[in-house]
Amino acid sequence: MKIKVILAWYDLFFGSYWDRDSRRFYLMIPMIGICLRFKPYTATTGERLKTTQEWLDKFQSKVAELTIENLKLKSLLAVEQKGEKNEQT
Fold first, then answer.
1. Which residues on adjacent β-strands are paired with residue 6?
2. pTM: predicted TM-score of the whole model, two decimal places
3. What is the CB-side half-sphere exposure of residue 21 using CA atoms within 13 A?
4. With bands split at pLDDT 50, 70 and 90, how would you rate the model's confidence at 68?
5. In this structure, are residues 49 and 55 in contact, taking their beta carbons and an 8 Å threshold?
6. HSE on the CB side for 51, CA within 13 Å?
7. Residues near 55 by Cβ (< 8 Å), separated by ≥ 6?
8. Which H or E element spans position 36?
């Protein structure tokens, strides 16, 4: 987690905000704010990833694994259906 102090003389906002996409929490009082930046993590293992690119690479590899598994299941289903049609005739 990284902490950053924000100074904005023009900002009169009072409150807090959670930026879900970039995993940042902003706590603001007039003209002064604190930004807490959290690292992305994987939901299944809980391991911390260093960059968004690592997270994206891991996500894409999971999608590829699932796609390959889906294609295998579809081909097995097609073979079974062909076998059933041959038995019926």
1. 33
2. 0.43
3. 0
4. confident
5. yes
6. 3
7. 40, 42, 49
8. strand 32-37
Smallest Cα–Cα separation from 1: which of 27, 24, 29, 26?
Answer: 24
Structure tokens at 46: 């809980």
Beta-bridge partners for 26: 17, 35
In the prediction, which pLDDT does 25 show?
A: 92
Residue bearing tokens 């690292």: 39
SS3 assignment for 54-88:
HHHHHHHHHHHHHHHHHHHHHHHHHHHHHHHHHHH
pLDDT, one tens digit per residue, over 3-49 is 899 888 887 878 898 888 788 999 988 889 899 988 766 555 556 65
